[in-house]
């Protein structure tokens, strides 16, 4: 039997896009002649990729998590305030930030599943609550400073045999991705996608749909906290550090061919979507396109990706909308 | 406003196929103003399709429709409406938070200048209500404050407001409580007195005899007979509705010593949809659960499986009383349910054959057993699924293969009790046979099977015993190989009616 690579449906296009972007970078940017350039790109992309993986869990199970951007901000601001430059506080503050992410995810998930509020609204509310709380707490100007130990995860590097110096964030990213892939291959991961596809079928198969959904939100919260730690490494501490990241993560997931509303898409593709997005912004930057256009570009991408997904529901790349069959079978004209 | 002239409609030689499957073949039907015409037949006889042809929803492949002697052709429901034909559907189409008058004139509100002429809307609605003699309903009442029977009146008023002279009513009593049925009878009789032609679709024997002037019977999409109600007995009707050959092949039934201990027992079980259920299903036995739509067959299945649990009585699995309040509990007790809606709640259509096959195992019994690849293959071989591979999405499979995947998903957890609801609906003959053999094979291995089916030949051919439901309660039990007439008599409440 021959081995053929088997891609989840909708995965192929994003890989093509990513490849084209990387080729583009190699042509345009002199820094991308060497592996170190790509490693730097990967390092920059790490927080977004981690966020996109978290967002993937929620979207593929049929929801949205709009709170992750505010959660990243909260993570960075809380860490800066509590560490306040003190190296000895680093470890427990990191644990606290992770715990906070889990807690926010738990609240999102419980309100969504138990109070039956659509996740779009729950997490939008959470975004506003977190934003407001950060503002109240900091007065708009966060105080404190992160320790070098904290920042190491985002900006530091470690010697790896053969590869040389590899950024910590890239290693963390790979670990998260590997764990996500293993999780999605397991029974719980498959049940999560199935719940996004057909909740009733999972429930009538004895599954606990609420728990699966809750788990997705908790994972999203936890990964947002990890993204905050990575981002804290190279971003400055501000009350705007996570602004708009939720939409960027959703764009990345959608670009990865994951179906909004759930039920289809792979986590690798979502991660590739995030990487593509980062590569695209880098490329635009190199081409001298104003950074102000970033959000406009992102808007176009999200609409185009969803339109592509709804028009061409097959694997084939369609350049024109598929012929829509009339719902009813053809009927002979009666005289 | 409604005029006083009676309208007659004549359908001649109506044929209709869907995707090559003939549903109606040369059916005749004549409706006269001031007459209640009952349309009877088993599930799948073509009643609803005929009603939809009359309503202009389906265009017939052959045959003619005449309204008052002139041949017409309906391109859509609006044309039928214009010809004075309206259908009252089982599911009401009213907006609950709007008033009666607003609902009646929804989408065609009378206007005065640019504004909706509310006063005229209310006045016209009131006039129609008065004309019907329904003074209990005010045009300004919100629909949500009305009873189900009153909502039905609003539906009818809505139809009359379009000058309908011909009303098709599809199972109008299905949604009504017992005391409301009499109100509906009154209403139908008043409509008849006022010259409306009524096509009354029902499979409830008593209603048809109480209300109708003439009866047309369909069977398997064909016209069987049309006769004045007074000239027919209920025995005649049952014979006309069934009476076909049992020419199909079914696997051998269980021999008496194949039967093991009682695996599933219901003792006095009931909830708000079904009652007084005393059912025992033994290992090795297939028990058929017959009944018309709405008789509570599926409600029994859903209750056993914990979807809408029993609130009274006892459920025993292998002799131990159990409280089954949700599907997860049922699955863990070894109860499986193949639902009647394969695509709606049986399969996750975008997932692969493999993922669906393992769905129960993963969702309900996490980490319980091996996840060996050979396992899935063995299961799929056992149910003889034909797919491009384990990784094909199930939505691309035929109905028959999809149903086999549903069965495989349950076989993966080796259930003790298997409840199947319409296991062969919408699948081809070959797959049907495979499903039948599989069910019998499972029974031989000691599974207790409870089978629900609207297809009487299938139910009779497969079952070792048949329980017949009527109106939410058991109407009787019949031995293997009982006649279709016997089943139908119990299902339509015919025998029960005689005894009363």
TrEMBL record, chain A:
Keywords: Cell membrane, Membrane, Transmembrane, Transmembrane helix. It comes from the Bacteria. InterPro entries: ABC_transp_permease (IPR001851). The keyword Coiled coil does not apply. It holds the Pfam family BPD_transp_2. It is found in: Cell membrane. The chain crosses the membrane at residues 12-32, 66-83, 89-108, 115-137, 166-184, 214-239, 245-261, 295-315. It is a multi-pass membrane protein. This is Monosaccharide-transporting ATPase. It comes from Microbispora siamensis.
TrEMBL record, chain B:
The keyword Repeat applies. GO terms for molecular function: ATP binding. It comes from the Bacteria. This is Ribose import ATP-binding protein RbsA 1. Pfam families: ABC_tran. It comes from Microbispora siamensis. Residues 9-245, 259-496 form the ABC transporter domain. The lineage of its organism: Bacteria, Bacillati, Actinomycetota, Actinomycetes, Streptosporangiales. Keywords: ATP-binding, Nucleotide-binding, Repeat, Transport.
């Amino acid at each position: 039997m021959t081995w053929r690579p088997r891609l989840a449906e909708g995965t192929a296009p994003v890989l093509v896009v990513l490849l084209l972007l990387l080729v583009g970078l190699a042509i345009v940017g002199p820094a991308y002649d060497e592996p170190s350039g790509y490693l730097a790109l990967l390092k920059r992309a790490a927080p977004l990729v981690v966020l996109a993986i978290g967002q993937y869990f929620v979207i593929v199970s049929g929801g949205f998590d709009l709170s992750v951007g505010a959660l990243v901000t909260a993570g960075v601001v809380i860490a800066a305030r509590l560490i306040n430059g003190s190296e000895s506080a680093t470890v427990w503050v990191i644990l606290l930030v992770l715990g906070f992410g889990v807690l926010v995810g738990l609240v999102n998930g419980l309100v969504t599943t138990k109070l039956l509020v659509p996740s779009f609204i729950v997490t939008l509310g959470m975004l506003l609550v977190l934003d407001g709380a950060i503002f109240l707490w900091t007065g708009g100007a966060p105080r404190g400073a992160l320790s070098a130990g904290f920042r190491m995860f985002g900006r530091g590097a470690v010697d790896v045999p053969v590869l040389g110096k590899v950024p910590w964030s890239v290693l963390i990213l790979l670990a998260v991705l590997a764990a996500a892939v293993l999780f999605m291959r397991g029974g719980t991961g498959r049940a999560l996608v199935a719940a996004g596809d057909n909740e009733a079928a999972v429930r009538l198969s004895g599954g606990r749909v609420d728990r699966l959904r809750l788990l997705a939100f908790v994972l999203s919260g936890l990964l947002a906290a990890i993204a905050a730690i990575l981002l804290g490494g190279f971003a400055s501490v501000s009350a705007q550090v996570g602004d708009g990241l939720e939409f960027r993560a959703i764009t990345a997931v959608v670009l990865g061919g994951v179906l909004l509303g759930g039920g289809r898409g792979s986590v690798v593709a979502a991660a590739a979507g995030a990487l593509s997005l980062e590569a695209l912004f880098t490329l635009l930057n190199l081409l001298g396109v104003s950074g102000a256009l970033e959000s406009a570009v992102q808007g176009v991408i999200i609409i185009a990706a969803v339109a592509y997904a709804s028009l061409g529901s097959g694997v084939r790349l369609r350049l024109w909308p598929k012929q829509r069959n009339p719902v009813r079978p053809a009927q002979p004209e009666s005289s | 406003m409604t005029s006083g002239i009676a309208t007659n409609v004549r359908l001649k030689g109506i044929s209709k196929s869907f995707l090559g499957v003939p549903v109606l073949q040369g059916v005749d039907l004549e409706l006269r103003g001031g007459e209640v015409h009952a349309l009877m037949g088993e599930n799948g006889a073509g009643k609803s399709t005929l009603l939809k042809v009359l309503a202009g929803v389906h265009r017939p492949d052959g045959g003619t429709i005449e309204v008052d002697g002139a041949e017409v052709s309906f391109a859509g429901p609006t044309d039928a409406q214009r010809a004075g034909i309206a259908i009252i559907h089982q599911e009401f189409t009213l907006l609950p938070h709007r008033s009666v008058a607003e609902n009646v004139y929804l989408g065609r509100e009378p206007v005065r200048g640019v504004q909706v002429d509310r006063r005229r809307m209310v006045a016209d609605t009131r006039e129609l209500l008065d004309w019907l003699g329904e003074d209990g309903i005010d045009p300004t009442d919100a629909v949500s404050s009305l009873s189900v029977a009153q909502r039905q009146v609003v539906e009818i008023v809505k139809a009359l407001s379009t000058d309908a002279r011909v009303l098709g009513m599809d199972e109008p009593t299905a949604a009504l409580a017992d005391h409301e049925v009499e109100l509906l009878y009154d209403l139908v009789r008043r409509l008849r007195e006022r010259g409306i032609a009524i096509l009354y679709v029902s499979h409830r024997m008593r209603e048809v005899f109480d209300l109708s002037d003439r009866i047309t019977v369909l069977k398997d999409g064909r016209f069987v007979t049309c006769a004045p109600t007074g000239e027919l007995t209920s025995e005649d009707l049952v014979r006309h509705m069934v009476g076909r050959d049992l020419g199909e092949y079914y696997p051998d039934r269980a021999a008496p010593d194949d039967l093991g201990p009682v695996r599933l027992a219901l003792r006095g079980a009931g909830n708000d949809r079904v009652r007084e259920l005393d059912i025992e299903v033994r290992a090795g036995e297939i028990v058929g659960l017959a009944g018309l739509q709405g008789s509570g067959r599926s409600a029994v299945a859903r209750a056993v499986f914990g979807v809408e649990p029993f609130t009274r009585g006892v459920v025993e699995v292998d002799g131990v009383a159990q409280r089954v309040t949700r599907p997860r509990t049922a699955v863990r007790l070894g109860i499986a349910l193949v639902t009647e809606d394969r695509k709606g709640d049986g399969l996750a259509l975008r997932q692969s054959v493999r993922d669906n096959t393992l769905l129960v195992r993963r969702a309900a019994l996490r980490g319980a057993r091996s996840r060996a690849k050979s396992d899935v293959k063995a299961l799929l071989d056992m149910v003889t699924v034909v797919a491009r591979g384990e990784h094909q999405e199930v939505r691309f499979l035929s109905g028959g293969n999809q149903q086999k995947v549903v069965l495989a998903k349950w076989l993966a957890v080796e259930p003790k009790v298997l409840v199947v609801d319409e296991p062969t609906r919408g699948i081809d003959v070959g797959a049907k046979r495979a499903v039948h053999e599989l069910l019998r094979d499972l029974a031989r291995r000691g599974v207790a099977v409870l089978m629900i089916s609207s297809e009487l030949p299938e139910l009779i051919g497969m079952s070792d015993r048949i329980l017949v439901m009527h109106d939410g309660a058991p109407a009787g039990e019949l031995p293997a190989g009982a006649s279709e007439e016997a089943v139908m008599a119990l299902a339509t409440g015919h025998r029960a009616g005689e005894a009363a």
